[in-house]
């Protein structure tokens, strides 16, 4: 025999059971001083017996607030994103907000669908990291029209409509180049990510600018969209070339580099490896690897905090808003 489906108990159900008005039930559940202790007791006993659960969505809808945030990321991966989510969660949970996560799978079309899902879900705000296919913010027009607060983090494009939280990619790359120069490296391989991304170009330009300030340094650059592509390209490069310094612009490129160095037993040689990293991975790969940290947890906390500030300003009818870029 199939189990019977249990209907969710409502305030109306409790009112009918106790033969009192729904408003009396509602006020009793909230310990309103106008309701007698005996009525409060009966209502709370009935609510407990029949597993009454308050409808948070309905309550918040009346307050014109859902207490829900939509989080949109390009993809769910083991690199970097989990630490950002932990940072976001730490802030939102503390402030009584829930959030749901949508993956755009690095597709502009799915990103559009995810934005519509957030709108339909009546979220209080949106946190988004853009896909590599996103070249403009035309699909954000409905968000602007509905005045839904939005903060862009990590992957963004030049814009001045919304707050953004990004790493100081230029400075981090410069520091990595400086490290290799100071170590005396003369033949360097710099491994960058997707060539079409602004973050890649920023890191490349700053890295090479610093390297080119020094004489007699040869630097080769390659672009790889994944750890697997790094391994494929290094299969040939490391056969034909000898490098004394390596730069990986991310954890993903670093893991591909590490695998290739292990294969050729180069990890034990006198080479210098430095990366831009979230900070966890290099410690487990090789204790000699150095890194310039990109703290995903910190980015998540800052992005969530900035979004809640905008939400609060809006709810307090403070309409003056100027977009800001926050560098970490």
From TrEMBL:
Signal peptide range: none
InterPro entries for this protein: HTH_LacI, Lambda_DNA-bd_dom_sf, Peripla_BP_I, SBP_2_dom
UniProt key word Transcription regulation: yes
Cited Pfam families: LacI, Peripla_BP_4
The organism's place on the tree of life at top rank: Bacteria
HTH lacI-type domain location: 9-63
GO molecular function: DNA-binding transcription factor activity; transcription cis-regulatory region binding
Keywords: DNA-binding, Transcription, Transcription regulation
Protein name (database record): LacI family transcriptional regulator
């Amino acid at each position: 025999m199939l189990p019977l489906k249990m209907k969710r108990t409502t305030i109306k159900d409790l009112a009918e059971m106790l033969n009192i008005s729904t408003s009396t039930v509602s006020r009793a559940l909230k310990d309103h001083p106008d309701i007698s202790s005996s009525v409060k007791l009966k209502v709370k006993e009935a609510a407990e017996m029949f597993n009454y659960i308050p409808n948070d969505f309905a309550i918040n809808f009346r307050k014109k607030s859902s207490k829900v945030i939509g989080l949109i990321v390009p993809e769910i991966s083991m690199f970097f994103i989990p630490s950002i989510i932990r940072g976001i969660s730490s802030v939102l949970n503390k402030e009584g907000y829930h959030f749901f996560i949508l993956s755009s799978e690095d597709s502009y079309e799915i990103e559009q669908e995810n934005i519509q899902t957030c709108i339909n879900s009546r979220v209080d705000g949106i946190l988004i990291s853009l896909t590599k296919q996103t070249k403009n913010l035309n699909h954000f027009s409905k968000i602007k029209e509905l005045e839904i607060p939005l903060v862009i983090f990590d992957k963004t494009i030049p814009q001045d409509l919304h707050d953004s939280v990004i790493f100081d990619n230029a400075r981090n790359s410069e520091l990595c180049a400086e490290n290799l120069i100071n170590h005396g490296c003369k033949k360097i391989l710099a491994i960058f990510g997707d060539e079409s991304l602004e973050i890649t170009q920023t890191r490349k330009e700053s890295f090479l600018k610093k390297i080119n300030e020094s004489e007699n340094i040869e630097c080769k650059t390659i672009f790889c969209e994944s750890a697997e592509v790094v391994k494929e390209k290094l299969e040939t490069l490391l056969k034909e070339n000898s490098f004394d310094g390596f730069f990986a612009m991310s954890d993903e490129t670093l893991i591909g580099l590490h695998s290739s160095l292990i294969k050729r037993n180069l990890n034990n040689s006198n080479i210098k490896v430095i990366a831009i990293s979230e900070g966890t991975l290099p410690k487990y790969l090789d204790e000699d690897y150095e890194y310039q940290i990109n703290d995903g947890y910190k980015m998540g906390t800052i992005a969530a905090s900035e979004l809640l500030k905008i939400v609060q300003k809006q709810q307090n009818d403070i309409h003056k808003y100027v977009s800001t870029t926050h560098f970490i």
